[in-house]
Amino acid sequence: MVFQGDVSATCPNNSAVSLTCVEKDCGERVRSSLSTFVVGGNYVQDGTWPWMAAIHYLGYHHCGAAIISNQWLLSAAHCFDLLKHKAPYKFEIIIGTVNRLQPGAGAIRVRPERIIVHPEGKFDTQFNSNYSYDIALVKLPYRLNFTDNIRAGCVPDAVYTPLPKHCFIAGWGNTDADHNSYPQTVLKEAKMTPVNEATCKASNLNLLRNYDFDRVFCAGYGNGYIMGCGGDSGSPLMCQDKFGRWNIQGVLSFGGSGCNRDGNFLYNVFSRVTHFTDWINGVIGSE
User: Fold this and answer.
1) 27, 144, 164, 274: most buried, per Cβ within 10 A?
2) pTM metric for this prediction
3) How many angstroms separate the Cα of 210 from the Cα of each of 38, 66, 144, 223?
4) Of the residues 56, 61, 62, 78, which is catalytic?
5) Which helix (H) or strand (E) is 72 found in, with range?
């Protein structure tokens, strides 16, 4: 761990210097993004988002996830709890590559040791679910050795702060809502703008009326053409902080009935990671 902060000789208004303890190498990467706008996004190269992981279920792409430490990944609870057969050995995690079907040298394919969904999340069926707690942790059977293509994204402090105007989502999901659309072989990224609660609810009040926006938030452009789609669930929304580190601020939960076409809900809904930081740290610390 290292200390980072703004240190000066004097502080105004009788305030004190504040130091933040952060994971030394989290949120750092060797390549920059090319995307201006993974519906409507761009393909990326190895090392662009080195904490991205693909989750396969019974041999097929299923969801995304983000590495947050050398043995833990963060994803969405419904990626696991909506399945009838959800034993860890039925899943495979692909790490360290943007091409999930033809991983390059140094990539890892591993089955999880444990899957822990938030205890308040109930996902008995797609229509009887509590997506306000749509977050899960995946434990690997061994510790990863970090490389240029395998690193951890940062988990933000459990403090609400306004999100920046531009963040990024990345994933291997479909690029169209059409049933003939398939998950992407190569990772795509898209720039996304977080929107406020009123804007999001106005897009579909019946769907979002009872959601607690302390636990979730929306992002997108309201056009249905730049957003996460099927197979992108569990993928992170990544925002850069003032230290230049990339924080996992959101975990894709649902949304986007448009999905590259007109629809009745044109934003993605993310679990707000800052609300769950204490739970994440508690689970990891107890293992």
Assistant:
1) 27
2) 0.86
3) 28, 28, 40, 23
4) 78
5) strand 72-75
| Alpha helices (H) in 20-124, listed in sequence order | 78-81
Instruction: Quote the tokens at residue 4.
Output: 């980072």
Distances (CA, A) of 43 to 35, 114, 165, 167: 8, 31, 22, 16
Contact by Cβ (8 Å): 157, 20:
yes
Pick the CATH number of 153-274 from 2.40.10.10, 3.40.47.40, 2.60.40.1930, 2.30.110.10: 2.40.10.10
CATH superfamily of this structure's domain 52-150+278-286? Trypsin-like serine proteases (2.40.10.10)
166 is a catalytic site residue: no
pLDDT tops 90 at residue 64: yes
Q: Is 232 a catalytic residue?
A: no
Q: What pLDDT, on a 0 to 100 scale, did the predictor assign at position 9? A: 42
How many other β-carbons are positioned within 10 Å of the β-carbon of residue 110?
15
Amino acid (one-letter) located at 70: N
